[in-house]
Design a protein that fits this description.
Elements (H helix, E strand, L loop, with lengths): L7 E3 L2 E3 L4 H7 L8 E3 L2 E7 L8 E7 L13 H12 L11 E6 L8 E10 L2 E10 L5 E3 L11 E8 L5 E7 L4 E8 L7 E7 L2 E2 L2 E2 L7 E9 L11 E6 L2 E6 L9 E5 L10
Parallel strand pairs: 3-17
Antiparallel strand pairs: 1-2, 4-13, 4-17, 5-10, 5-16, 6-7, 6-13, 7-8, 8-9, 10-11, 11-12, 14-15, 16-19, 17-18, 18-19
């Protein structure tokens, strides 16, 4: 689930190249953040030094996604939808979201990550856990053994071991399970670490973001310590020339933040 963006450098991250009037109309209150993207929002820390980040961790609550608004249809469209439904073909709008932590992907094309998916597909909500190493597709974590529901309290850890391999761990405190993938081979440059809400790539294109309401990333750590997040590390997501996902400013400890669907910036954590 790689970050896609036009690369015009500004500050610590990158900004997409967008019309000036969109910045004025839609990015009010978001200009204090360091980057924007069509598929990522949240926080990322980065470095020009290879090997700068060898571990990342964080916690979040799996957000509950909402069904997209029903679009008006003409009589002919209704007939077409009926025919397609007889053929078992969905005619509803599918929307997607993913909450995750990772290393790399912000300033390069590598990425190791794990998280949860929150989608609305074929008229139903869909929740599951996954891990991924680009350029390979995501690996779904067996939902029969590791079920995920909206509201579950998750914790994720990714760390490089002394033998050079990596361990990916995902814990669902609500369901009471722990998944661990050890001995993972990953050779990315380790120049960024992230805590992200994403609209993933689906069928070779960036998906429409699901309305995930609001959630929080907590206990964020990098290299075993506080990442000391600042507003410049944060970024917003825009689709169709409007902000669709935006984080809060970091909390007072600089290791957590809230994030919300839409353009209204949520309040930061109080402690």
């Amino acid at each position: 689930m790689q970050l896609w963006r036009y690369k015009t450098k500004k500050g610590r991250g990158h900004r997409v190249r967008i019309p000036h009037e969109v910045q004025q109309a839609e990015f009010i209150g978001a200009s204090q953040f360091g980057w924007s993207s069509t598929n990522w929002s949240g926080y990322a820390v980065s470095s020009s030094d290879k090997g700068a980040y060898s571990s990342v961790s964080g916690s979040w609550t799996v957000p509950a996604v909402k069904a997209p608004p029903i679009q008006p249809v003409t009589p002919w469209q209704k007939v077409l939808q009926f025919i397609l439904s007889l053929l078992g073909i969905s005619t509803g709008k599918d929307v997607y979201s993913a909450s995750w932590i990772g290393i790399d992907g912000f300033n390069n094309s590598n990425l190791i990550q794990t998280g949860t998916a929150q989608n609305y597909v074929n008229g139903k909500t869909q929740y599951y856990a996954w891990w991924e190493i680009l350029p390979n597709p995501e690996t779904v974590i067996d939902p029969s053994k590791y079920p995920v529901n909206a509201g579950d309290k998750m914790q994720a850890n990714i760390s490089k071991q002394s033998d050079g391999t990596w361990t990916i761990q995902l814990i669902d405190w609500t369901q009471g399970w722990t998944f661990a993938k050890k001995g993972v081979n990953y050779t990315g440059p380790q120049t960024s670490a992230e805590w992200i809400e994403e609209a993933p790539e689906v069928n070779l294109g960036i998906a429409a973001l699901a309305d995930y309401g609001e959630t929080a990333f907590q206990s964020c750590m990098v290299n075993g310590g506080n990442p000391q997040l600042t507003a410049g590390d944060g970024g917003v997501m825009y689709q169709n020339n409007q902000v669709v996902s935006i984080p809060s400013l970091p909390g007072p400890q600089q290791n957590d933040f809230n994030i919300a669907y839409g353009s209204q910036m949520p309040k930061p954590p109080s402690s």
